[in-house]
C-alpha cells in the first residue's frame, strides 16, 4: 500500500449510498488530518451511521471513494478496513467485548483472529495486554484488573478497554461512534481524556456524538451532516447553538395547522424524571391537544414515554389520568386504563406472519371476543375501519402486516389505538422509517382523531414535531429545558433550548403534590 | 421497500435459514406433503395386510396413540408461548405413581386418586412456573431440572419400587388397597365399542383446538410465541399467560398419567419416560401439517396418529421392533425439513 505522508489520514470523496429508493448519503466529502480530532454530528437519519458503516467496511458505498493516507481504500469487509488502518469503536459496548473472558484476553483479542499464534499462554497474554494498555495510556489503571472478567469492570473502563484494543492495531484512523452515550459525566471525562492522548500520538479521530458540549471541548473541527449532505465543515471554536441550528436546518417549515389549546387535563405528571440523573419536571396533556416532545437523541424522550406506559418503573413523581391516580405497573395496566403506546421500534410491535386484523385487535382481544371466542367478523370490521381511517388503500384486513410498506405498517400500528377506547396515546418516533407522503398522512390523521383524547408525540426531529404538535416540550439531559407553542417554535429558539441544561421546572413542591393526590393531609 | 429500518424485522422460523421461494410444487409439498405421505402409508399397509384397514385395528391404533396425543397437546400449548416443557414425561410417571399409591397403599377411592393425580400434575406445573416465569430460568433447562426432580420424587414416594396390589410394605405388612374398578374403567372400558382413552383424547383435543385456535386466550398465547415484546407492548400480561401455558401442559400430562395408570393397573417405575420424546416428536411433526409451521393442536394430533400408524403397520409387516425408533426418527427429520427448509419465505397466518 502506498502511504502518502502528507495526505490526510482520511479523505472521504463524494460518497453516496442508497438503499432501494432511499438515498441516505448524497455526495459527502471531508478530510481528517493526522492527529486531528474531527467531530461528526447530525440528527437522526442524517446519514452518520451509514457513513460509519462504510468506513468500517460493514457496507459498501454506492458511489464515491474513501482514501486512507492517500490510497484509495473502499473496504469491502471489516478486516480489509482494519488492514487499511481504520478501527471503529461502536456505540454498544457489548459489541466490542467478550463476556466471560478476562480483561487481558479482551485486550489481545485481535491476535486470536486468523494469523495469530496457535497456542496461547496466560503469561504472554498478560504481557501483551500490559503493552497494549500502556500504549493507550492506561497501564496503571488496568494493571490490577487484567485477570478479572471483563463484565466486572464499570462501563467506562470497559469502553477504555475496547478503545485500547482498537488502538493496539495502530490505526491511522479511529472512529468513535458515541463512545460516551451510556456513560455518566464523570466517566465520560476519562474517555475524552484518552481521545486527547490518541490525537497527540498522531492518530486521526472521527468523533461521533450527540453531546455537543463534548464536541466543543475536544474537536478541532466539526462536520455537520443533514439529510445525507455535509451542511457545515467548520474549525473550532464553535458554538453549540450554531451546531444545533445547522443540524436542524435553516428554517423550520411554517405551521400548517391551527393551534388548539386543549380541554380538561387528560394526563398530569408531577415531578417525574426521564432519567435517574435528570431534573424532575411536570407534564400536563389536555384533551384535544397534541403535545410534541423533542430533544437531541438520548435526552430521555423514550424513557419518559415508557414510564408513562408502565413499560419501565416510574423514577419518581406521581401520575394521574383524567383526574384519577394512575400508577401502571405494566403495559397491561396502561392499556386497561386507556393508554396506548406506539413504540420507537416497529419490529418490536410486529408479530411475524400475523395479519393486519390480528395486529389491530391484539390490544383489544376481550372487546373482540364473545364468550371467550374471537369474533373474526367483528375483528375484520375494526381492522377495515382502522385501515380506512388512516388511509391505507390496497392491502386488506387479512394481508400480512409484514408485507405492507413501512408507512402502511406504521399507519396500522398507530391506527389501532384510535378505536374509541383510548384516552391517551403516546407515540415514540412515529415517523421514523416512514416516507414523506405517509408522514404527512399520519400527521393529518393524528390531528383529526385527537379531538377528545390526549396525544404525545416524541421525535428528535423538530420538523416532524412541527407537523403535528400544538405545544412543544423540549428535553435536554433527561429534563425539560423549556416549552413553546408550536407557532412560536423557531430554529433559533429551539436550538437555544436544545443546548440549555435542563432546569428544575416543577411548578409545585412534593408536599403539595401529595396533598393534591390525597396522599398527605395538612 | 428495503430501508435501513426494515432490516432485521422478520424473525419467524419460516423466514430464516434456508428459507427460499419455491415454485407451486414446493408450496404444495409444504402444505400437503405430510398428509400425502400419511395417506400413502395407509394405502400401502392396507394393500399389504388386509387386517390393517379394519375398524378394530383403527381403534387399536387410536388407543395406542391416545396417551402420547394427550401429552403432546400439552407440549403444544407450552410451545405456543415459545416455551418447551421437557418435564411432561416425568410428570406422567409421577402421576402414575401418585394414583397407584393413593389406591394401593392408602386404600382410597378412584375419584381421590384422580384428584391426587391432577394435583400432582399441577404441582409439576407450579414448579415450572416458579422457575421459568418467576425466577426467569430459560424454559429448556428449567423443565429439564423439573424432569429430573419429579422422576426422582416418583421413586422416593414409593421407596424406589413399583406399586402393585398386595405388595410387601416391609415388617410383614401388605398394601391394603387395590385399583378401584371405576378408575380402571378409564384404561379398559369401551363406550359404543370405542375405548374410553380414545374418547378422552378426542375431548381433550377438541378443547385444546378450540382454546388455542379460536379463543382470545389462545390468540394471546400465539402473540407471545410470535413476538413477546410486541405482545407485552400491546398490553398482554405475558408472564401470566406463560404460567397458564405450563399449567395446561401439566394438566394434560396429568390426564395422560391417569389414563396410563388405569391401563397398566399398577404403578411402574419409569412408566412415563418414553412419552417425552414421543410427544415432542408428534408436536414437531405437527408443525408440517397444512403448512402451519408453528405449534398447532390439529397438527399435533395428526403427528401422534402418524407415529401410531407407522408403528402399527411396521409391526404387521413383521419389521423388527428395533428398527422402529429409527423409522420414527427419520419421519421427524423429514417433517422438520418440510417446516424449516421447504417453507416459503412468507406465509399467511389464518
From TrEMBL, chain A:
SMART domains: AAA (SM00382). Residues 506-522 have a biased composition (Basic and acidic residues). Residues 501-522 are annotated as: Disordered. CDD domains: ABC_Carb_Monos_I, ABC_Carb_Monos_II. Pfam families: ABC_tran. It comes from the Bacteria. Keywords: ATP-binding, Nucleotide-binding, Repeat, Transport. The keyword Nucleotide-binding applies. Residues 10-252, 259-502 form the ABC transporter domain. GO terms for molecular function: ATP binding; ATP hydrolysis activity. This is Sugar ABC transporter ATP-binding protein.
Automatic annotation (TrEMBL), chain B:
The keyword Membrane applies. The keyword Transmembrane applies. It is a multi-pass membrane protein. Keywords: Cell inner membrane, Cell membrane, Membrane, Transmembrane, Transmembrane helix, Transport. The chain crosses the membrane at residues 29-48, 60-81, 114-134, 141-163, 183-212, 243-262, 274-291, 298-319, 325-343. It is found in: Cell membrane. GO terms for molecular function: transmembrane transporter activity. InterPro entries: ABC_transp_permease (IPR001851). One of its GO terms (cellular component) is plasma membrane. This is ABC transporter permease. The lineage of its organism: Bacteria, Bacillati, Actinomycetota, Actinomycetes, Frankiales.
Amino acid at each position: 500500500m502506498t502511504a502518502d505522508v502528507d495526505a490526510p489520514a482520511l479523505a472521504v470523496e463524494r460518497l453516496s449510498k442508497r438503499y432501494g429508493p432511499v438515498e441516505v448519503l448524497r455526495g459527502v466529502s471531508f478530510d481528517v488530518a493526522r492527529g486531528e480530532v474531527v467531530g461528526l454530528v447530525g440528527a437522526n437519519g442524517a446519514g452518520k451511521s451509514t457513513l460509519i458503516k462504510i468506513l468500517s467496511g460493514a457496507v459498501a458505498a454506492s458511489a464515491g471513494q474513501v482514501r486512507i493516507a492517500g490510497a484509495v481504500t473502499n473496504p469491502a469487509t471489516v478486516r480489509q478496513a482494519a488492514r487499511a488502518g481504520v478501527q471503529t469503536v461502536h456505540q454498544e459496548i457489548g459489541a466490542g467485548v467478550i463476556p466471560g473472558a478476562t480483561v487481558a484476553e479482551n485486550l489481545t483479542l485481535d491476535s486470536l483472529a486468523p494469523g495469530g499464534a496457535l497456542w496461547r499462554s496466560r503469561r504472554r497474554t498478560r504481557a501483551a495486554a500490559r503493552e497494549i494498555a500502556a500504549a493507550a495510556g492506561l497501564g496503571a489503571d488496568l494493571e490490577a484488573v487484567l485477570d478479572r472478567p471483563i463484565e466486572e469492570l464499570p462501563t467506562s473502563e470497559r469502553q477504555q478497554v475496547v478503545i485500547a484494543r482498537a488502538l493496539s492495531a495502530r490505526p491511522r484512523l479511529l472512529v468513535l461512534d458515541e463512545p460516551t452515550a451510556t456513560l455518566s459525566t464523570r466517566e465520560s471525562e476519562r474517555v475524552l481524556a484518552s481521545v486527547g492522548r490518541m490525537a497527540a500520538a498522531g492518530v486521526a479521530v472521527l468523533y461521533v456524538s450527540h453531546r455537543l458540549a463534548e464536541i466543543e471541548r475536544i474537536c478541532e473541527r466539526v462536520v455537520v451532516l443533514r439529510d445525507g449532505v455535509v451542511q457545515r465543515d467548520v474549525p473550532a471554536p464553535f458554538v453549540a447553538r450554531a451546531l444545533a441550528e445547522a443540524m436542524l436546518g435553516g428554517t423550520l417549515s411554517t405551521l400548517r395547522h391551527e393551534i388548539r389549546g386543549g380541554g380538561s387535563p387528560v394526563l398530569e405528571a408531577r415531578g417525574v424524571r426521564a432519567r435517574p440523573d435528570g431534573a424532575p419536571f411536570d407534564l400536563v396533556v389536555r384533551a384535544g391537544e397534541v403535545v410534541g416532545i423533542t430533544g437531541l437523541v438520548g435526552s430521555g424522550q423514550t424513557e419518559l414515554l415508557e414510564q408513562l406506559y408502565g413499560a419501565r418503573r416510574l423514577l419518581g413523581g406521581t401520575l394521574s389520568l383524567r383526574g384519577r391516580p394512575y400508577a401502571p405497573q405494566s403495559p397491561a395496566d396502561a392499556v386497561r386504563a386507556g393508554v396506548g403506546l406506539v413504540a420507537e421500534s416497529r419490529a418490536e410491535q410486529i408479530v411475524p406472519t400475523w395479519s393486519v386484523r390480528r395486529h389491530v385487535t391484539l390490544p383489544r382481544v376481550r372487546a373482540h371476543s364473545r364468550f371467550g371466542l374471537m369474533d373474526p367478523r367483528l375483528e375484520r370490521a375494526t381492522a377495515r375501519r382502522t385501515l380506512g381511517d388512516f388511509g391505507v388503500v390496497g392491502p386488506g384486513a387479512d394481508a400480512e402486516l409484514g408485507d405492507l410498506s413501512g408507512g402502511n405498517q406504521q399507519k396500522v400500528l398507530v391506527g389501532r389505538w384510535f378505536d374509541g377506547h383510548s384516552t391517551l396515546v403516546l407515540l415514540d418516533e412515529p415517523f421514523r422509517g416512514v416516507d414523506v407522503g405517509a408522514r404527512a398522512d399520519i400527521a393529518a390523521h393524528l390531528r383529526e382523531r385527537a379531538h377528545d383524547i390526549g396525544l404525545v408525540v416524541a421525535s428528535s426531529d423538530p420538523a416532524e414535531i412541527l407537523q403535528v404538535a400544538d405545544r412543544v416540550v423540549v428535553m435536554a439531559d433527561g429534563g425539560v429545558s423549556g416549552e413553546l407553542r408550536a407557532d412560536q417554535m423557531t430554529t433559533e429558539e429551539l436550538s437555544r433550548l436544545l443546548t440549555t441544561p435542563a432546569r428544575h421546572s416543577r411548578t409545585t413542591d412534593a408536599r403539595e403534590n401529595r396533598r393534591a393526590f390525597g396522599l398527605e393531609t395538612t | 421497500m428495503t430501508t435501513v429500518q426494515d432490516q432485521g424485522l422478520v424473525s419467524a422460523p419460516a423466514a430464516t435459514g434456508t428459507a427460499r421461494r419455491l415454485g407451486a410444487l414446493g408450496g404444495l409439498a409444504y402444505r400437503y406433503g405430510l398428509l400425502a405421505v400419511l395417506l400413502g402409508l395407509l394405502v400401502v399397509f392396507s394393500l399389504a395386510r388386509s387386517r390393517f384397514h379394519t375398524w378394530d385395528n383403527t381403534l387399536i391404533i387410536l388407543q395406542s396413540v391416545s396417551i402420547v396425543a394427550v401429552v403432546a397437546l400439552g407440549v403444544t400449548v407450552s410451545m405456543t408461548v415459545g416455551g418447551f416443557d421437557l418435564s411432561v414425561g416425568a410428570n406422567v410417571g409421577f402421576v402414575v405413581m401418585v394414583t397407584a399409591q393413593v389406591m394401593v397403599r392408602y386404600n382410597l377411592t378412584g375419584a381421590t386418586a384422580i384428584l391426587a393425580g391432577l394435583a400432582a400434575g399441577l404441582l409439576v406445573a407450579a414448579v415450572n412456573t416458579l422457575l421459568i416465569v418467576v425466577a426467569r430460568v430459560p424454559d429448556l433447562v428449567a423443565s429439564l431440572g423439573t424432569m429430573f426432580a419429579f422422576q426422582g420424587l416418583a421413586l422416593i414416594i414409593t421407596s424406589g419400587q413399583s406399586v402393585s396390589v398386595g405388595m410387601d410394605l416391609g415388617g410383614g405388612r401388605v398394601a391394603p388397597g387395590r385399583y378401584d374398578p371405576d378408575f380402571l374403567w378409564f384404561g379398559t372400558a369401551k363406550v359404543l365399542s370405542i375405548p374410553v382413552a380414545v374418547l378422552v383424547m378426542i375431548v381433550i383435543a377438541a378443547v385444546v383446538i378450540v382454546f388455542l385456535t379460536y379463543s382470545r386466550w389462545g390468540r394471546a398465547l400465539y402473540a407471545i410465541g410470535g413476538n413477546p415484546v410486541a405482545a407485552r407492548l400491546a398490553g398482554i400480561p405475558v408472564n401470566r399467560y406463560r404460567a397458564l401455558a405450563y399449567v395446561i401442559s401439566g394438566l394434560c400430562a396429568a390426564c395422560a398419567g391417569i389414563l396410563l395408570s388405569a391401563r397398566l393397573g399398577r404403578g411402574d417405575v419409569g412408566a412415563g419416560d418414553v412419552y417425552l420424546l414421543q410427544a415432542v416428536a408428534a408436536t414437531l411433526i405437527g408443525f408440517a401439517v397444512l403448512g402451519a409451521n408453528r405449534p398447532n393442536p390439529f397438527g399435533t394430533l395428526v403427528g401422534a396418529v402418524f407415529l401410531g400408524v407407522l408403528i402399527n403397520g411396521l409391526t404387521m409387516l413383521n419389521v423388527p421392533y428395533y428398527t422402529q425408533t429409527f423409522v420414527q426418527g427419520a419421519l421427524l427429520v423429514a417433517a422438520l425439513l418440510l417446516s424449516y427448509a421447504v417453507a416459503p419465505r412468507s406465509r399467511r397466518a389464518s
